[in-house]
Design goal:
The protein is globular. It is mainly beta. Helices cover 9% and strands 43% of the residues. Strands 2, 3, 4, 5, 6, 7 and 14 form a seven-stranded antiparallel β-sheet that branches. A six-stranded antiparallel β-sheet has the order 10-15-16-13-12-11, with helices on one face. A three-stranded mixed β-sheet has the order 1-8-9, with no helix packed on it.
């Protein structure tokens, strides 16, 4: 489960992304565009130390971008190239925000979520000792099945469309651009997610899919591939 806080965050997440997105190799929108939130989902860090949220955002009438983020209370050593920016959380204090594809905690959580079929974490607020569950803004599910060993570290990341995360246990493929117009898939989020030559039916791996308001047909979000 993912504990949320009713808090003020400055600068906000979308403000950070407005500056960071134009520098990504998979971004195809305007340099001065303002991202808007489409939906999001979270994973749980078993250690409870790192926040893991994947945001879906759109800039203007363009595609939906999938941006996994991790939130940390201190810098991640050796991960400067993955730093999106820093912000201040009114409850948790200073936060270092990273592109999660370069964060080993995200890689482990993504692999576990797909391998176990658990999908996204339930989100809740705690008010006077009582849990208030927040309804998810999108539906996340797992298609196919594969035995996934625990991920201990990230060896290499190829930041493109899609982004490929090579870990010590499995490879993870994360779609960055999604059509988000109600269609089933396009060459960016569908075929390229399986560009390794494996079948798209989950026979050689398992796929995380997502659907949200305006996009009722589930789209592939990420895939785990055994070594």
């Amino acid at each position: 489960m993912a504990l949320l806080h009713r808090a003020e965050i400055r600068p906000g997440k979308l403000e950070l992304l407005a500056t960071w997105l134009p520098g990504r190799p998979w971004y195809a929108g305007p340099v001065d565009g303002e991202p808007t939130r489409v939906a999001s989902y979270r994973f749980d860090d078993p250690a409870g130390a790192v926040g893991i949220e994947t945001m879906l955002v759109r800039v203007g009438a363009g595609p939906v971008y999938q941006v996994p983020l991790t939130y940390r209370d201190a810098p991640l050593a050796g991960a400067d190239e993955w730093l999106v920016g820093t912000t201040r959380h009114s409850v948790l204090g200073p936060r270092w925000v990273y592109d999660a594809c370069g964060d080993p905690v995200y890689a482990a959580a993504l692999a576990a979520a797909i391998g176990t079929g658990a999908g996204q974490a339930e989100e809740y607020f705690e008010v006077d000792g009582v849990r208030e569950v927040r309804e998810p803004s999108m539906t996340v599910a797992v298609q196919g099945g594969v035995a996934v060993p625990a991920v201990g570290g990230v060896r290499r990341v190829t930041d493109g469309e899609p982004t490929r995360i090579v870990t010590d246990a499995v490879d993870l493929v994360v779609a960055r651009r999604l059509p988000g117009d109600g269609s089933a898939a396009d060459g960016l989020s569908g075929d390229r997610l399986f560009a390794d030559g494996s079948a798209g039916d989950g026979s050689a791996g398992a796929t995380l899919t997502g659907a949200w308001p305006g996009q009722p047909t589930p789209l592939p979000l990420a895939r785990v591939l055994p070594h």
